[in-house]
Amino acid sequence: MPTHSVTFEIHSLIDFHLEITHYPELTSTHKWIQKGIEVLKNHTPKILQYLSKQKILSHLSECNITIETIKAYEPHHITYAFQQWIKKEKKKRLVYIICEGSIIPLTPILALLPGPNIFFYIPALFLYYHVISFLGLRKVDIHKLDIQIRHVDHFDA
Fold first, then answer.
1. In a domain, 12, yes or no
2. Which of 47, 53, 121, 122 has the most CB atoms around it within 10 Å of its CB?
């Protein structure tokens, strides 16, 4: 996968509150998957944004990372906060994987309902993206990342 650029904003160093603000949108070379992405973009853009963030987290070790901050923190504090944020995100993904993995075996009961089995597809889709983001975050070595720190006057809305 080619190197992408990702931008994070640090809102608080105390509770390691970072937010991904700029990232590449989810795409695919497969015709049917791209069609599904277009449906998500038209009908549920928030879900597409969420899945795009999960995909970029899976490739975070290959990205050019920019961390924006309003306050002039020391670079080692920002790096430490980013490292703690990654640990926190890994734990959250693990909880999501456990919950979704326990829900999916219950969905065959709902397959009897007419229409597409969205009760299986949606948890399976989220499970897939949470697994790849968890596995990608496990590979991140904070010392090998290409991190640029940029001080800004204010965050873009």
1. yes
2. 53
Q: Tell which residue, 141, 7, 151, 146, has the closest CA to residue 66.
A: 7
Q: Would you say 94 and 135 are in contact if contact means Cβ atoms under 8 Å apart?
A: no
Instruction: Give CA–CA dist 108/85, Å, rounded.
Output: 36
- Give which of 3, 22, 5 is closest to 148, Cα–Cα: 5
DSSP 8-state secondary structure symbol assigned to residue 20: E
Q: Residue 62 in contact with residue 71, Cβ under 8 Å?
A: no
pTM, two decimals, is 0.87
Residues 27-50 pLDDT 10s: 888 888 888 889 889 989 999 999
Domain containing 51: what range? 5-151
pLDDT at site 1? 46
